[in-house]
Amino acid sequence: MKVHLPIIPTSSARLLLLGAQGLLTNPSRTPTTAALQNIIEQLGFVQIDSINIVERAHHLTLASRLDGYRHDHFTQLLETERSLFEHWTHDASAIPTKWFPHWKPRFARGRERIRMSAWWRKLIGEEPDKVLDHVRERIISEGPLRSQDFEHERRGISSAWWGWKPQKAALEFLWQTGELMVARRVNFQKVYDLTERVLPEYHRKAQPTEDEHVEWACSTALERLGLATPKELADFWAAITPAQARAWSEEAAAKGRIAAVLVESLDGVKVRLAYAVIDWEQRLNKLPEPPEMMRLLCPFDPVLRDRARLHRLFGFNYRFEAFVPEPKRQYGYYVLPILEGERLVGRIDPRFHRARGVLEMRRVFWEPGVRVTRTRRKKLEVATERLARLIGAAGVESDFNELSYRVSK
Fold it and tell me: CB within 8 A of 57, min separation 6: which ones?
């Protein structure tokens, strides 16, 4: 008997994603550490990135979902309460600590993978175990250390491996394989300490079985996406393979735990197989109306991360151009997409001049078909002022829309 799968319009798939990722909720709420922890758990993780031309990526991502977001609340969760820890998903991220045991399989895979890496072997030198032992022993005896704490020592260490690069390679290996954790950051530099000292309770917890790990990776990813293909499930945490995600999806759908669906293309001509949370229709009906406000999204926002999905659901082509030579950039170094309700309506090219305390909004690019009304200009001004408050800018300057003013206190 032929099974007819439900067809989900692109607009509904888009709403499910935005709802799951906290972008249909009004950000006006009391900015507490508990509220912030809940947001990060809803997202799954928040990416950490070093580029600071406007603000660090994690602060931008969280502030788009929480008005009055406080930087110190994030630091408190990560460095004091330890309800978050820093490690890798697809990139460096802050992750709820309750899921730490599911990083143990990653640590185990990393030991073999990194040791076999020609790049790592070149950095670590001819005596890798000696370098690792030395770095490990110093942290055991001295406590948390940064890579720069190793830069100038020579005593008792072979010149064959002495230097910053071997020790940095050792620190990264010990972190990637779970012996060390990032205890805190100082001027964005990692400070490493033993995992058993940073996360003593979670360090002792057993590693999940492979079946438990795959179940966790797929079920938590689907919950945070609303619907997804097996590849999208695997990519979410970068913790399992697409084949594992496909096997899980097919089995879970056969057991009635999730729903196999067909998602329409943006033009409504084609459909693609995906898997949705079992109650996707009820969730869709309970979603709030998309807020009319505008939000400036971080380039590393999880909604933007999968560029193919972004184009399928929003019709929005986005390329991060920070590493593109300036003459070849189409829009700018650190362009922020503009979300209005459920639509991505444009992008803006900002820069924060810290010495002057001025946020410069250099250019705005509206998507084709977007009417630039007075109301839209006002919404953009409000979104810009929210960003200025977040980063502590005293004023905003712009060459467009007469958008230049002092930020009220």
Answer: 46, 47, 48, 49, 51, 298, 299, 300
Quote the pTM value: 0.92
* Domain spanning 117-151+164-198, CATH architecture: Orthogonal Bundle (1.10)
pLDDT classification of 2: cutoffs 50, 70, 90: low
Q: What pLDDT is recorded for position 139?
A: 98
Structure tokens at 47: 């990416």
Q: What is the per-residue pLDDT across 242-252, written as a single tens digit (0 to 9) for each?
A: 999 999 999 99
Rounded to an integer, the average pLDDT of 102-106 is 96
Please, what is the Cα angle at 108 between 102 and 110, to 5 degrees?
105
Question: For the chain, how many residues are written?
Answer: 409
Contacts of 75 (CB under 8 A, 6+ apart): none
The residues facing 336 across adjacent strands are 348
- Ranges assigned E (strand) in 151-289: 180-186, 189-194, 227-228, 258-264, 271-277
The single-letter DSSP state of residue 64 is T
In 3D, which of 263, 233, 226 has the Cα closest to residue 249? 233
The helix/strand/coil state of 255 is coil
- Protein fold of 294-407: Aminopeptidase (3.40.630)
Domains of the chain by residue range: 7-99+207-286, 117-151+164-198, 294-407
